[in-house]
Fold:
Amino acid sequence: MQLEKPAEVLLLGPGPSPVHKRVLEAMGQHTLGHLDPDFLSIMNSTMELLRYVFETKNQITFPVSGTGSAGMEAALVNMVEPGDKVVIGVNGVFGRRMVDVASRCGAEVVEVEAEWGHPVDADELGKTLAAHTGVKLVGIVHAETSTGVQQPLEPVVELMREHDALLLVDAVTSLGGLPVAVDRRDLDIVYSGNQKCLSAPPGLAPITFGERAMQKFQQRKGKVQSWYFDLSFLTRYWGAERFYHHTAPINMIYGLFQALEMIKEEGLEERFARHCLNSGALVAGLKALGVEPVVEDQYRLPSLITIWIPDKIDDTEVRSRLRREHLIEIGGGLGPFKGKAWRIGLMGNGSQRENVEKLLRALSDILNQLGHRCSIKEALSETMPLYQQHE
Ligand SMILES: *Cc1c(COP(=O)(O)O)cnc(C)c1O
Structure:
């Protein structure tokens, strides 16, 4: 029996994002051996393209086998040893997950919390670092997909240098959609995932380690707790030695290579501008429909927009009708936002004018049917001028 053809659902949720046909076609190519010379050159090109997207010269830049969480785990198991002091900013699900992973590594974790929908406060972070001497690493989420908040990184980096700590950044929902700029911002360890703004199917976690991080890694007292994610093996496979560690997911890497090529063809700046334009238009249109964004302008992500569900409107009713009647997926709220907010992803390929307008039409249809009066004409008259300015 053949797999039934999956419905062509437009993915405007918190990930995965829409995958371009060119990427899917690349993944359908002949599987090479993982030490084949032709595959080795694809590995090299993929690392080079990842350096372009991360905006870094870091030698140690490659995709970890596994989803975004594998990137988180790989970063923490390599950098953290039992008893190390680690500070993590928590303002949503993914900061919370970092705390969990770091404590499983045996770290002494101190959390700096912020309210959902707000960034972590750099002053709070500074006070925590001052109160706990000898912090080895600080973890922070650049783009909190559970809330739609963008974390300002510059003030955090400043604190790191002041306190001689490493900065670990979760860039799963930012890489390829908004500037991560690893070298310019001087970030130590950054990981991401395939299926958000890079628009490849889930399965790989691009990661990069800077010099300071690698020095700390060399100074480890004990073995890395995880065999699979041990950087000393992984760097020997991705480096000149091509030492066998585990079989690389060959066709996944074809897909990532192709997705990265498409980012390079478009250009990073153009891609960032596209994400800003479409999220700006979506928010303008939603406001005209009487739907308000959760996060204030300054901290709102261009790749993931959270909106308050209008009064008397049922969360699951709307989302299941979007899926059933319009073939559109959006995300529900998590934690304190469950049943209160929706999460709309305009990530990578998904960030298109056509998709913004399609979603606005579908939402206005459903909301009107459920008794929330709104006009799609008014919404489109808000988005139109934004697009015209950019023509
Ligand atoms: C999606 C996501 C992850 C986890 O990625 P998976 O691919 O689901 O393992 C981690 N951090 C953030 C910010 C994410 O959005």
